[in-house]
Write a structure and sequence with these properties.
about 500 residues, mainly beta, Jelly Rolls, eight-stranded antiparallel beta sheet, about 0% helix, about 35% strand
Length: about 500
């Protein structure tokens, strides 16, 4: 799990001129989709562009970016296919048979990264291999396990007068699980990546977005920026080709975007003896109640700076909330020791747990207040002074005195990650942390929304406590864990 994500715009080391403010979370369990039925237009030339962040990898579920399906099973679809895994990109034009199909060999398996995909249809092109073209993060895909080129001048189903769905197969299946941003359809032009993005001049492997407002969208073109939480299908291209949102609500608007990537839970780190189900854009996890322990870890590591996250207690069980230096320890088999090095956590019974470099446990039995259902626990990590604090419902525990943590450089991976684990095995658990990318705990909207001092993140309580006297040591201002803050403090 990289500190700064390479090879795409998620890296905050790149200077970003154009900012994407919002994305939209698609939770597959809710059957979400955006759809519209356009008038017939250019079926020989069009472009579809989308930024996305996956929340699941390695499953057998098909996940659609876009679908256009008639009543006879014919379709234009772009998705992650079920075989060999949903990490393989597929683009199909099926009309009684596969007239055109590309199944890429490349797999996209990073749930912490934003990707940019472009699908360009240019069926009147004289070169067969240029009639269907796929680009990821500014580079064309050229290696395919299946490569069927459409015939010249072949009409596509997309951009006829058939219903178009974003994030599902006709609104009935194959629902995407993750985040979409900057969803654009261009009617009548076959565009290349430079119309939508560019490589950063200082970090030439980093692909970043460009302002699309100057593009010619065509009659059926649309641009979804998701900046209106009350109308997530709002088209801002100037065409007013709005899409209807189904099973999407204001709570699904996110500030986790390609130009400011936020930490989420990492589904790749999962216990083997208590399989967990991640949902709501990796902001909810539910365990299966098997006998072993379990834990989650964040997608972004911390080595320096001052960071904050909070979690709303979903049920009256003894959670451990804090930081961890070795995410792999949280996924150990039940036959192995789960005592972990350099772990600091606040437990529901009011105790503070600390595992030292030998994996030995030190417990402070009279450290803080107990917490239960409905309480909000804030975690403040100061890696400039190597201290950690916790608050219950905005009241700092331990009289505001920080707990000393081992310097990150001395831990086995040189960093810490947000984590949460159980205190008792054999129970099912639900946790709903808030890292700042959504104004919600899972699907539950926050009652108040507070950003950090830089204006990033959404929390119930203010992470930047300024000159608050309730801290007895260390710095006072803490920040949400996102790439714009990492560029400044990380």
């Amino acid at each position: 799990m990289p500190l700064i994500l390479p090879g795409n715009v998620a890296s905050a080391t790149a200077a970003v001129g154009y900012n994407i403010a919002n994305s939209c979370r698609f939770n597959s369990g809710d059957s979400p989709t955006l759809h519209r039925t356009p008038d017939a237009s250019d079926v020989d030339k069009w472009t579809f562009s989308i930024w996305f962040k996956k929340s699941t990898v390695g499953t057998s579920a098909v996940q659609d970016f876009l679908s256009c399906i008639d009543g006879s099973g014919n379709n234009t679809v772009m998705n992650y296919v079920a075989s060999p895994s949903n990490d393989t990109l597929n683009w199909t034009e099926y009309q009684g048979s596969y007239l055109g199909q590309y199944v890429a060999n490349a797999k996209h398996r990073d749930p912490s990264a934003w990707y940019h995909a472009i699908f360009t249809w240019d069926s009147d092109n004289a070169t067969a291999g240029n009639r269907m073209r796929i680009y990821i993060n500014g580079a064309e895909l050229t290696s395919f396990s299946t490569e069927t080129n459409v015939s010249q001048d072949q009409d596509s189903l997309l951009n006829s007068n058939l219903r178009v769905d974003i994030g599902s197969a006709g609104g009935a299946s194959s629902f995407f699980h993750g985040y979409f941003a900057e969803v654009i359809f261009i009617d009548g032009s076959a565009l290349t990546p430079t119309s939508f993005g560019e490589f950063d001049s200082d970090s030439p492997t980093i692909w970043k977005p460009k302002d699309p407002s100057g593009l010619t969208f065509g009659d059926n073109g649309f641009w979804l920026d998701f900046e209106d939480s009350s109308a997530l299908g709002n088209d801002v291209s100037g065409n007013n080709n709005d899409l209807t949102a189904v099973n999407l609500a204001a709570v699904d608007q996110a500030t986790d975007t390609p130009t400011n990537n936020f930490c989420t839970m990492n589904p790749l780190v999962n216990t083997t003896d208590a399989a967990a189900v991640y949902s709501e854009g990796n902001t909810v996890v539910v365990t299966d109640g098997s006998s072993g322990d379990w834990g989650f870890t964040g997608t972004i590591a911390m080595t320096t700076g001052k960071w904050y996250y909070e979690t709303r207690i979903y049920e009256d069980k003894e959670f451990l909330i804090g930081i961890h230096s070795d995410p792999a320890e949280l996924a150990r088999d039940s036959s192995e020791s789960k005592e972990s090095k350099w772990c600091y956590a606040y437990r529901g019974d009011g105790r503070m747990y600390e595992y030292n470099d030998a994996g030995s446990l030190t417990t402070n039995t009279s450290w803080g207040s107990t917490f239960t259902t409905g309480d909000i626990i804030g975690c403040y990590l100061d890696l400039d002074n190597n201290l950690i604090y916790w608050a219950k419902n905005d009241t700092l525990q331990n009289s505001g005195t920080g707990i000393a943590v081992t310097a990150p450089a001395l831990t086995q991976h040189g960093a810490y990650w947000w984590c949460q684990t159980d205190a008792n095995s054999g129970e099912s658990w639900t946790i709903t942390p808030a890292f700042g990318g959504l104004a919600a705990y899972g699907a539950t909207a926050m009652s108040s929304v507070v950003a950090d001092k830089n204006g990033y993140g959404s929390f119930e309580y203010d992470p930047s406590r300024g000159g608050a006297s309730d801290f007895n040591s260390g710095a006072k201002d803490f920040y949400s864990l996102c790439t714009k803050n990492l560029a400044e403090f990380g």
